[in-house]
Design brief:
Elements: H1 2-6, H2 9-23, H3 28-38, H4 42-57, H5 61-116
Helix pairs in contact: 2-3, 3-4, 4-5
Length: about 120
């Protein structure tokens, strides 16, 4: 119930629907799987699948949630590294085509002027 008020309004209403289904006698697994089918978020669907399988197997939820959080952090970190690599390549073009030629001109100009005198 507390989580429903912390998350955004769209997810909060979906969690409210899950809670009311559970209160009306539906199993927790069935309600979570129904939410999984409705969601467009790949991460949320993966979390719901993990929770359902952990509950069905009787695995400790704390360990399952900890591993899920670690996996999501690793995935986000790898996406950041990939994005950073693409931006690094994009920054290479201004350096090569703008800054480097200007630097070469500044380095060669005094020598060329001295040779003409």
């Amino acid at each position: 119930r507390r989580v429903r008020h912390v998350v955004g309004p769209e997810l909060g209403s979906q969690l409210g629907n899950v809670l009311s289904e559970i209160e009306n006698g539906s199993s927790v697994s069935r309600a979570l799987l129904k939410l999984r089918d409705l969601t467009k978020s790949r991460q949320l669907a993966r979390l719901l699948d993990t929770l359902v399988s952990a509950m069905e197997r009787g695995a400790p939820l704390s360990t399952t949630l900890r591993e899920q959080a670690r996996d999501l952090r690793d995935e986000a970190r790898s996406q950041l590294m990939e994005s950073g690599g693409k931006q690094e390549i994009a920054m290479l073009f201004p350096v090569v085509f703008v800054i480097l030629p200007v630097t070469v001109v500044f380095a060669l100009y005094p020598g060329l002027v001295a040779l003409r005198i």
